[in-house]
Amino acid sequence: MTAAAPAYRRILLKLSGEALMGGGAHGIDPDVLERFACEIRDLVADGVQVALVIGGGNIFRGAGLAARGMDRVTGDQMGMLATVMNALAMQDALERLEVSSRVMSALKINQVCEDYIRRRAMRHLDRGRVVIFAAGTGNPFFTTDSAASLRAIEVGAELLVKATKVDGIYSADPVQHPDAVFYSRISYDQALREGLKVMDTTAIVLCRDHGMPLRVMNINESGALLRLVRGEDIGSLVVSGN
Ligand SMILES: Nc1ncnc2c1ncn2[C@@H]1O[C@H](COP(=O)(O)OP(=O)(O)OP(=O)(O)O)[C@@H](O)[C@H]1O
Ligand SMILES: O=c1ccn([C@@H]2O[C@H](COP(=O)(O)O)[C@@H](O)[C@H]2O)c(=O)[nH]1
């Protein structure tokens, strides 16, 4: 029996920077990086065009640095540079698996990687290359969740997948509230009304206003991403509604 064709032609996958730490306190666990790269390779092998945004929470977050006294904009710039490091690490891991990829940065750092140019990004995707969008939106006071929504809309992704450490969206943070209720399907407005912190508000509003379907799923569940792009109901789906 042949496998089902993927349900999506092009997706944007937002990977949590923190998930890259594995069991560590910060930085990148090479085994975890390789595991995530294998999951992405399987999507590409299935014929899905994959754009990636990786967070920077495993290295720096501007808000955290500002809380310790640093100028917020400087902290955010360090956070954005942290996402470039994660992007380079992922590019390296993908290319070791013979998956062609490009890093495109919203901040100019073009001795290291390409600048973000939308039409070039779309061309890379059309050619089957994984495009890793680095440095978030290029502006302070934003997050990589917002960058993921923005880029997903810009490049015409059919689905934004937020791959994180929990199984999906709950009525409260399940890490702190183990009795929280799981939502398999929820509207953008309900997520905003209930102030659910799994994805930042700007990112959800962008998805809502531009009709970008959003899935939140657990990246640590092996094979789940592939099943998702093949149409299985994995994690939580955020769409229009009440
Ligand atoms: N209502 C909720 N449902 C699910 N998860 C929630 C909720 N509220 C808070 N969370 C937390 O949100 C986290 C998801 O965000 P994640 O760690 O991916 O954040 P991020 O800031 O995007 O990551 P990073 O900065 O590391 O890239 C989960 O680990 C979970 O503990
Ligand atoms: O558009 C953006 C995206 C990110 N930042 C800064 O980077 C860090 C890391 O991103 P996370 O989404 O938290 O993983 C973020 O905390 C910001 O400080 C940014 O300034 N602009």
TrEMBL record:
Origin: domain of life: Bacteria
UniProt keyword annotations, A-Z: ATP-binding, Cytoplasm, Kinase, Nucleotide-binding, Pyrimidine biosynthesis, Transferase
Catalytic activity: UMP + ATP = UDP + ADP
Pathway: Pyrimidine metabolism; CTP biosynthesis via de novo pathway; UDP from UMP (UMPK route): step 1/1
InterPro entries named among the record's database cross-references: AceGlu_kinase-like_sf (IPR036393), Asp/Glu/Uridylate_kinase (IPR001048), Uridylate_kinase (IPR011817), Uridylate_kinase_bac (IPR015963)
Any Pfam family: AA_kinase
Top EC class of this enzyme: transferase
Activity regulation annotation text: Inhibited by UTP.
PANTHER family (UniProt xref): URIDYLATE KINASE, URIDYLATE KINASE PUMPKIN, CHLOROPLASTIC
Protein's name according to its UniProt entry: Uridylate kinase
The species this protein was found in: Marichromatium purpuratum 984
Gene: pyrH
